[in-house]
Write a structure and sequence with these properties.
Elements (H helix, E strand, L loop, with lengths): L1 H55 L6 H55 L10 H16 L2 H13 L80 H4 L21
Helix pairs in contact: 2-3
Length: about 260
């Protein structure tokens, strides 16, 4: 009888222990699984972050590294823009130079035709051909640079069309305001009554030129040669302008102005 009781009691105790185990152990296991899951998530996050930093090359970057990353593309962009602008300006200058040369060649061809085929040299001042020549000449001058203007004037002199008392192609009273005549040889040309307002006459040869009553307002006369030039009655010529010329000996000047650049 006692044996049966003991067996029954043992069975009862075993059942109680199993019940307690089923009620507590699963909860502990669930908590452990949660902790394990959080640990795995944290590890995956750290590994991903580390891999990303390593892959993008951003690990251990210094301030100089960042500056290089930013400045190098900027320098390349600015340098490319500057080179493109320089190339564009160079191309434009080449196109302009080609246009000027074409204008000069066409002018020479037109003048030769008027000389050899239209009787320009024997024409009278009132003839229409004189008007055509004057118009074409002034139009060409406005499109040319100083070097080609010098060649144009020399061409007219060689063809006995202007200079030294010849006025088949006349510059008397012409409007050359804003004209770029720098470096041109305009010696002995008659510019009386001409409008040279704001004209660029820098380094221009005006030896013996007639500038009587010409308008020289704001004209650039830097290192120009005005020797023997007739500037009497020249309008708006200032002492400051005259002080910028290279030579003005024996020039006829407006009252009150003095030449300080005699030989």
């Amino acid at each position: 009888m006692l044996c049966l009781v003991d067996q029954k009691g043992a069975s009862l105790m075993a059942a109680q222990d199993k019940s307690q185990e089923s009620s507590f152990v699963p909860n502990d296991e669930k908590e452990a699984q949660k902790k394990l899951a959080r640990l795995r998530k944290k590890l995956r996050k750290n590994v991903t972050h580390k891999t990303t930093r390593t892959w993008t090359g951003l690990k251990d970057k210094t301030l100089w590294d960042w500056l290089q990353l930013l400045l190098i593309p900027l320098v390349l962009t600015v340098g490319g823009f500057m080179f493109s602008t320089y190339q564009h300006n160079t191309d434009q200058q080449q196109v302009l130079d080609q246009q000027r040369q074409a204008t000069f060649v066409q002018y020479q061809n037109d003048m030769k035709d008027l000389l050899f085929n239209r009787g320009l040299l024997t024409s009278k001042p009132s003839d229409e051909i004189r008007v055509i020549v004057r118009t074409e000449t002034l139009s060409a001058i406005r499109q040319l640079d100083g070097i080609r203007i010098s060649s144009l004037v020399q061409f007219l002199k060689d063809a006995r069309l202007t200079g030294n008392g010849r006025y088949i192609v006349s510059f008397i009273g012409v409007d050359l305001s804003d004209a770029v005549l720098s470096g041109a040889n305009l010696s002995n040309i008659d510019f009386s009554d001409a409008n040279l307002n704001d004209a660029n006459l820098s380094n221009t040869e005006l030896n013996g030129a007639n500038l009587f009553n010409a308008n020289l307002s704001n004209a650039n006369l830097t290192i120009a040669n005005l020797s023997n030039a007739d500037l009497s009655g020249a309008q708006n010529l200032t002492q400051k302008q005259l002080d910028q010329v290279s030579l003005c000996d024996d020039a006829m000047l407006p009252t009150g102005l003095i030449c300080h650049h005699n030989l």
